[in-house]
Design goal:
The protein is mainly alpha-helical. The chain folds into 2 domains: 127 residues, no CATH class; 95 residues, no CATH class. Helix 11 runs antiparallel to helix 12.
C-alpha cells in the first residue's frame, strides 16, 4: 500500500521533472527559431516528436486513474489503490494529471477513514500552484476539513472551512460543507449560530445521503435544545429517529447523547417503541 508520504514525494519529484523537461523543450524551440541553420528544421521535428511521445505517456497516466472515483464510491478499494498507484508511478509531463492522481488518493484514504493521510495529501495538493486543476481545490478543502474534525483538530477544520467561503460551490459541495459546518459549530458551542436559517438547513439536509442527513439534523436538534427550543428539538429528534439508529449516531458523535438523555426524549422513544 502506497503511503501518503511516499506519494507526496513522488508527486513533487515528477512535477519538478515535468517542469524541467517542458522548459528544456521550450528552450530548444526558441533556440532553433532564433538561430536558424540547416539543422533547425530537424531539431524542431525531433522536439515535436518528443513532445508528442511525452504527451501520449501523460494521457495514459490520466486514463489509469480516471475510474478511481467510481471504484471508491462502490467500495472497490483494492482496485482503486492499484489504479492510483500505477498512475502516480507513471511519468506525466503535465502537472494537472499528477494533481488529479494525488486527489484520487486523498479520496481513497478518506473513504478508508485514514484521516491523517487524507489531511497530508490534501495539504500537499493545496500547497501546489494548481493551474488547470484549480477546480480540485474545493473538494480537497472539504476532505481536509472533514479529516481535521475526525482527528479533533478544531482549529485546522476552521481554517479549511473559512477558505471555502471565498469559493463558488456546487449543490453537492454546499451540502457537504453544511454537514461539516454544523459538526464544527457543535464542537465549539456555536448553538445560536447553528439556529440561524435552521429550517433551510433542515431542508438542505434532506437532500443528503441518509447517514449524513441524520447526523446533520441531529446536531440541529441539539442546537434547538441548547437555545431553549424544546418543540423544535423534539420534532427534529423524532425525524432523526426515522432515519438512523440513535445508538450509532451517539457512538460516532457522543455529544449527541444529550438528545436521548432527558425525560422528554425518553418518553418519545418509549412511544415510538410502543407503536412499533
Amino acid at each position: 500500500m502506497l503511503s501518503a508520504e511516499a506519494a507526496i514525494s513522488k508527486f513533487r519529484r515528477d512535477v519538478a521533472l515535468g517542469a524541467l523537461l517542458k522548459g528544456a523543450l521550450l528552450a530548444g524551440v526558441v533556440g532553433a527559431l532564433v538561430v536558424p541553420h540547416v539543422e533547425s528544421s530537424a531539431a524542431l521535428v525531433v522536439i515535436g516528436a518528443v513532445w508528442l511521445a511525452l504527451s501520449y505517456t501523460s494521457a495514459k497516466g490520466s486514463r489509469l486513474a480516471a475510474d478511481s472515483p467510481a471504484l471508491i464510491a462502490s467500495g472497490q478499494f483494492e482496485e482503486a489503490e492499484r489504479q492510483i498507484d500505477r498512475s502516480l508511478r507513471s511519468f506525466s509531463l503535465f502537472r494537472a494529471v499528477k494533481v488529479q492522481s494525488l486527489h484520487h488518493l486523498a479520496l481513497l484514504r478518506h473513504a478508508q477513514r485514514r484521516w491523517r493521510e487524507t489531511a497530508l495529501l490534501c495539504r500537499a495538493l493545496l500547497g501546489q500552484r494548481l493551474g488547470a486543476a484549480q477546480p480540485l481545490s474545493t473538494p480537497a478543502r472539504l476532505l481536509l476539513a472533514d479529516s481535521m474534525l475526525e482527528m479533533d483538530d478544531v482549529r485546522g477544520a476552521y481554517e479549511a472551512i473559512a477558505a471555502l467561503y471565498t469559493q463558488r460551490l456546487s449543490l453537492a459541495e454546499v451540502l457537504n460543507l453544511l454537514r461539516i459546518q454544523v459538526d464544527y459549530e457543535a464542537r465549539v458551542g456555536a448553538w445560536q449560530q447553528m439556529m440561524n436559517g435552521a429550517m433551510s438547513k433542515v431542508q438542505l439536509a434532506e437532500l443528503m445521503p441518509t447517514p449524513s442527513a441524520a447526523r446533520t439534523q441531529a446536531f440541529l436538534a441539539l442546537a434547538g435544545r441548547r437555545v431553549g427550543r424544546a418543540d423544535w428539538s423534539d420534532w427534529l429528534r423524532r425525524l432523526v429517529e426515522l432515519l438512523a439508529d440513535p445508538l450509532k449516531l451517539v457512538f460516532e458523535r457522543p455529544l449527541l447523547a444529550e438528545l436521548w438523555s432527558g425525560p422528554a426524549a425518553a418518553a418519545g422513544t418509549s412511544q415510538e417503541s410502543a407503536r412499533a
